[in-house]
Hints:
A: ABC transporter involved in vitamin B12 uptake, BtuC; about 0% strand
Amino acid sequence: MLLEIDASKKHKIGKNSIVQFIENYGLIFVALLFFIIFTIIKPQYINPRNIFTMIRQASAIGFMALGLTSLSIVGEIDISFAANATVCGVVSIVLIQNGVNNTYLIWAICILLGMTISYFNARLIVGLGVPSLAGSLGMMVLLTGVARWLTKGIPIYTEVFPAGFDFIGRFKLFGIIPFQTLIFVVIVIILTIFLDFTPQGRYIYSSGGNPEAAYHVGINVGKCKYMAFLIAGFCNGLTGITLSSEYGSASHTLAEGYFFLVLASGFLGATFMTGGVPNPRGTAVATLLLAILNNGLIIVGLPFYVRLIFQGFLVIISIVLPIFINWRKGREFVWFIH
Amino acid sequence: MATGTNNKSTNKEGSILLKLDKVTKIFPGVVAIDKVELEVLEGEIHAIVGENGAGKSTLCNVITGFHHPEEGEIFWQGKKVDFKSPKQAIDAGIRMVYQERNLIPYLTGGQNIVLGDEPRKGLLVDEKKILEHTNALKKRFGAIVPLDVPVMRLTPSYNQLIEILRALNRTPKLLILDEPTSSLTQSDVKILFKVLRNIKKEYPRLSVIFISHKLHEVFDIADRISIFRNGKKIHTDKACNLDRIACIKYMINRDLSNRYPEVIPHFSKSEKVLEIENVSEKKGKVHDVNMFLRKGEVLGLYGLVGSGRTELSELVFGLRKKEKGKINYQGKEVNITSPYDAIHAGIFLIPEDRRRHGIFNGFNLKENLSIAFLKDKLTSTLGKIKRKEEINFAYIAADKSSLKIKYTNIEQDVSNLSGGNKQKVIIGRWLAGKNATVLIMDEPTNGIDIGTKYEIYELMRDLTKQGMSIIFISSELPEVLGVCDRICVFREGSISGILQREEFSEQKVLEYALI
């Protein structure tokens, strides 16, 4: 027993704390590193317009990644997030085409739609007990079909938008800061406060960390999982209306291009600050990193297939790294894969 | 069958099968085993005893090639060896049966036994041959266990036997059993030992290393005993030259003449805090249970594994549905349908499987201690967790009298705590809330060293002094007799007998449990 005490004391002093610091905050440094590398390779990279384009893209990725993160905290996954967002974006345009003029109404409908779709996923996965990967896979195919049906396979757009519709997508604070980014920051803050500082948030973490122990302590694990799904649904709906607002149109592939980046970012965030546990702040930093990478690779002029390969590589790393960190901490399992 | 003290026909006296010479294994910050010198003779059953943390598991991991020692040499059959992997140890003839089951749940006993070495018919597995071969194997050792049923449908005792048969499948020279009886009841243990003695008869040259906490069993089966403490081997001697008291002395380096604290009755003669009338579970293990719990008493539930004690406690705690019957709590009928309800009423459960049902490995010590009362006591009106209060709460839980959780930093990782300390965390989490009226403890001392066990017994008696009532489920008869005010004996899903402390006798309890 005394030996245990000595062991943990040793980890506190000297070299180890620097290693700890790098392990915890490394993600930011990696992001900065790539930023610098790309700037050196192509100085156009640091053009403010480019930077804010990149940040705008990051927001769309970020919303969905936050949804994915919430779900991975409770040990579930929903890979239909992009299809979900696409359907919501498409519906927003369809509503305008059919004469709905009130922007707020459109936003409300689309976000509620996102949450409803996720609620169905929750019924399937939490209620019926279908394994989350299988269930959400089926849902993804279904939703993609719905999107195709609604758009009849071609991008849909309208000539005239209701007042304020392009606000989310195009408004820039002080002329440069994209509005989506502001919303993203606000949501990260809200989620962080909720998950890390409220009891219900702690319960959500417990439901993922050890659902049986959580149940034994009186926590309603099902409720926590439903909450996570609804958060994800909200995020997906938000992504949909952001993208349709940005482009002024919607196709059945609206959010599809972001699929792998979101996947990577949702998992990579677990390497930031918490040593292997998914968390919203980490996801924000991971999103930034991935946007820097993605954008950088385009600017540098690499062909699209290189980017695709790179994205695949990133997804693998983003899963392996948290596993590795958990393993180093001597944990018996990886947070979201059990 | 006499005790394992006769060395007559079974070993070539003095023939050393395995020798460890000043073997040391160091992990970061921890010296797990320290210059250990150990000899295992051919044909002997050599028991290794010691508290948790004494180094027994590390010792086995080094012998089986899982870990590589920093210092020292290992000699196998007289020659120096250096196993670079477990496979090399297996090839050399060393097989180990671990404390936790390593069987494939949906395969049959027979398939599990030959796993990795299946008899073939051309390219396919020969199932008929598997059955023939494994049935012959089990007949040789007199092990009565069904081998054609998926093992997940079998009891822990059968699973244990199947794993031992699996280890014996390729005629090893050394068999290591790590706490083989920790999840078995006394009658299962008797069966296991019978099989072990048969094995010894069939394989006179097989050596067995038997690791255990349970001294009475060790003396029942072992030829020689080695005692470990804090990573060092303290003493080795023939079992006939030792007794339990001497072993305990070596194990803990202090005289523990009293294994159990003094039982001062604190229970109320009249006030019943829990009354269970005719309770049955639908198609379940439990049926027609009638019992009550007095305020301030420690009520023991004893019985064979599967006799319904855990199931009854889960019924009370809301983890299972009751189909018939009434439960009265503090005089009023209650309908508890979930742990949440039970907790709110003041009924707490410390589950049997602390790893799966108790500890949150992703949370630190403070968070593990505060989780149960987070919403009720530690949240501000705005909905945020009060940080300072949480830390205070955690300190109270960790340092509360008789608990003494060993930690350095209240926010340290829990995965490094010993089993005993983890158990204390689960207990402490409930006690700090001060809401407990009824505390149900299911096998709380399972796999825990003697020193910590005593602390838990002390805690239980202490709590009754404060008016708490405790249901204590255990399969260790001595501790049930030593700590409880009353015992309910379970058999096949209902109560077969109730004994007051004045009537306690090992004989009577076993009769109720088995006959």
